């Protein structure tokens, strides 16, 4: 997932191919039989025809795991064993007792011992599910409403991305399908626990049991999982959090609901995931403040570098004020000038005001004023002008007008605003600056700017206007004196 200006996390759209993360093909995450049914594919009980579940029962209602006399028949084909590994691993995020932990880990060991080998699919799928579980625990709305909110959020993210519309539609359909699968799975377990359409918060002990089970799986997989696998699993775990982020309570990242995902991501980094910064930039771009906060903490714990200044640029470009606050206060981002100038150039008043309130002064504001003037963002220019000290404007007045004219793109409304506003606070000085540009033979002065000030703001234009005014005054006085005029 390179720089986020052309992608969304989980997809590569401009190159016409799905990402190598969990959503690239349906078979990568869930097999046809288990992913498309309306039932929960996390329940071993629901997969009787495929994993000999008549010998296995996992039920959260009574918080027990029963591993009977023969969980996995050694005669099962590898694909069935791989499916069984995925289904069993998914169940770890609903563990609640030590007995269940023992039953699930023993089952995973037996499935692997009998020939399951697709650790990559199992890791990607369960990372995605764990993230959804963690996110749903933070939400007040029902799971049914969550599906609608998720679909809307996904649509918004796709709209913000560049790329072929057909590919974006296909990618969106796949992600929505897998997210709905995860929510159905969560809903099924929630109903088993008697909570109808809500998700229980896990206790610290339950969270520890779940993370222990995942660590056991990683240990069993050993070197069968590569650095690339861990990287893609990290990506898969981060993606749902960006879909749900808009409804997280402030401070969710430091609460117990986020403990599972923090532990999961930490283990994936330890295993070799190297895309923390990429996911961090994506989260910043889409305003996923709580995920940004989590990734900052993970980077600090693991001594990893994340580009907080570039992230601030992405967040400000998309006007994600809450994320900007987080990046400055918790990530110590300090590179304000670039984002401020780009916001002024685009006319994003909210972001410009935020930077001014954050302490941008003098030269930074002067450059932002120039950017707003050059793109004819008169509203932003009017806001910034009183904040720029007069001595700075006096010293740089010619350069401000020259730069604005050079990058004007054909419209000189911003230049006209400055001159009409007497931006130097002294009409004589303002006219002198304009006249200087009108008479300049400097090649750096844009021809359009020179022609504009020559016609409207030069000394010659002033004298011509004065002359026309005097002539007009004389004609008016003749009319008033004689009551008639050849001109009238």
Structure notes:
The chain folds into three domains: 4-273, no CATH class; 283-334, no CATH class; 338-457, no CATH class. It is 63% helix and 2% strand. The chain contains 24 helices and four strands. The chain has helices at 26-29, 32-35, 48-51, 78-90, 98-113, 119-136, 143-159, 165-192, 204-221, 227-244, 259-271, 276-285, 289-301, 308-317, 321-329, 337-346, 349-357, 362-374, 378-384, 390-406, 413-420, 427-439, 447-456, 459-482, and strands spanning 11-12, 17-18, 56-59, 64-67. Helix 5 (98-113) packs parallel to helix 9, helix 6 runs parallel beside helix 10 (227-244) and helix 12 runs parallel beside helix 14 (308-317). The chain is elongated and about 115 Å long.
Helicity, as a percent range: 55-70%
End-to-end separation in angstroms reads 74 Å
Q: Structural class, please? A: mainly alpha
Compute the gyration radius: what is it? Answer: 32 Å
Enumerate the strands of the largest sheet in spatial order, edge to edge or round the barrel.
1-2
Treating each run of at least 4 consecutive H or I residues as one helix, how many helices?
24
What is the strand content?
under 5%
Q: Unreliable runs, pLDDT <50, ≥5 residues?
A: 1-71
Inertia-based shape: elongated
Q: Mean of residue pLDDT?
A: 78
- Give me the count of strands: 4
What is the H/E string? EEHHHEEHHHHHHHHHHHHHHHHHHHHH
Protein name: Ankyrin repeat protein SKIP35
Organism: Hibiscus syriacus
InterPro entries: Ankyrin_rpt-contain_sf, SKIP35
Features:
488 residues; 3 domains; 63% helix; 4 strands; Ankyrin repeat protein SKIP35; SKIP35; two-stranded antiparallel sheet; mainly alpha; Ankyrin_rpt-contain_sf
